[in-house]
Amino acid sequence: MKKIFAIIIILYSFSASCQTLQLSLKECLRYADENNLTIQSSALDVSNSQIQLSQSKLLMSPTISATASQNFGYSHNSINGGFNLGGNYGINAGITLFNGLNTYNTIKQNQLRVSQAQWQVEQRKNQLHIQIIQAYLTVLMNQELLTYQQNVLTSSREQLIEGEHQYKVGQILESDFMLLKSQYFTDSLNIENTQLSISNELLTLRNLLCLNSQQTLSIITPDSLQIAQIMYIPDLQEVRSQAMAYLPELKMKNNLVEIANYDVKIAKSAYYPTLSLDAGINTGYNNIYSKAHGNSGSNLLDNLGESIGLNLNIPIYRQNNTRNSVRMKQLYVSQAELSLKQTELNLQKEIEEYYLSMKKAFNQYTVSDIQQKAYQINYVTYCQKFQYGTITAADLLQQQSNYLNALNNYMQNKYSFLLQKKSLEVYMGRDIEL
Quick one: how far is CA 43 from the chain centroid? Predict the structure, then answer.
């Protein structure tokens, strides 16, 4: 009984570890944000910048230190010889009251560095999201294509059965029958190849989501009506304005300009004097144990002393180091501003080119949709003609080939448009779903 119970536990544990995740596109993106290793690595950069910010804030607080020393000695002098025991102890504190706002500007700069690291995470998420969307849509495309291919295979099987019957009664030549047989096996291989493509893209998707080897993945196929509702072109002005307001690349360039400006302020702080406050409490003792006088010395309270003082450091001449440092930092500001303007131009151009490419894909999708419907009707008609023996197998297979080519072209254009549209939505900072 115990063995049976143990086997049940092992089987339950194995089945739990081999779980299947069934995810929609939105769920895939959310899962990747939480589990992708590249995103987790970027999050560590954010934590690092936050630690640096916390450390810079602590520069406004005082420093406190304690000192202690203990001395032991022995003298062989015949009169005052003996042991000598002494010690000094103290607590000292210091705080910078003014340093040309260096500390304040460093804090502000490190806050920008935290934002920079956060936008870096957002940028990498966007790159990851586009890869996931591409893999997800490729799986959807092949799954939809697989449905059509299975219908074609069913039709090919019927044609092969009909062709075999016609060949046996002498209505068609052996060559026609062999063509039908070859086409049936070709259609079967097309299905197998499409299934392999689905498996390959699911493997890519699993890798992007960082699933372990015990987890399998299947995707949720959206309703065809849901997809039909998003097959439209958004307004260019809306796309441009939302993308330019959101894109992390632009935020990061803006941040770099601000960081460079704070570098100038930090460099200018060297022009100003530094004022600091120091305070301390110190004491000590010294005991002598001699043969002639016994024990003599002082105690800690007798030597207790306090101190407080202000320190002012006024820069007078530093061989123009401060001036040249400020000028160099100002050049970095100019470089950062030029880089920002160039990035704005590049992103505007990239967005508009992407938008035009999406419009072209939509037009190709619209035309190919009409074509594949026409070729489908034509193919069905030729199937009926073949059953009545009015056309040859070569004529039928030519129409089947035309239909499959139109169908593949339609699938490619449909999902190419969807990929480009969803990628634009990523650049616009929208929630992505199908």
Answer: 9
71 and 170 share one domain: no
Confidence of residue 75 (pLDDT cuts 50, 70, 90): low
Domain span at residue 416 reads: 22-61+100-272+320-427
Query: What pLDDT was estimated at residue 12?
Result: 43
Distance CA 132, CA 140 (A): 12
Rounded CA gap, 322 and 274, in Å?
15
Please give the Cα distance from 415 to 419 (Å, whole number): 6
What is the pLDDT averaged over residues 392-415? 91
| Among 103, 117, 113, residue whose Cα is nearest residue 56 | 103
Give the per-residue pLDDT at 320: 87
- Looking at residues 335-345, what average pLDDT do you find? 96
The pLDDT of residue 130 = 95
Structure tokens at 15: 């089945």
DSSP state of 302: T
Q: What is the pLDDT of residue 296?
A: 55
28 and 121 share a domain? yes
Number of Cβ within a 10 Å radius of residue 223: 9
Residue ending a domain, choose from 293, 314, 335: 314
Q: Does 232 fall in a domain? A: yes
SS3 78: coil
Q: What share of the chain is helix, strand, coil (3-state, %, to 5)?
A: 70, 15, 15
Do 168 and 81 belong to one domain? Answer: no
Residue 6's alpha-carbon distances to 9, 13, 14, 17, 19, in angstroms, are 5, 11, 12, 17, 21
Reported pTM? 0.83
Q: How many Å is the maximal CA-CA distance in the chain?
A: 142
Evaluate whether residue 9 is within a structural domain: no
- Distance in angstroms (rounded) separating the CA atoms of residues 132 and 30: 11
Q: What is the mean pLDDT of the chain?
A: 88
Q: Tell me, yes or no, whether 328 and 285 share the same domain.
A: no
pLDDT for residue 288:
67
CA distance 202 to 21: 12
| Total domains, the chain | 2
Q: Is the dihedral angle over the CA atoms 246, 250, 251, 252 positive or is it negative?
A: positive
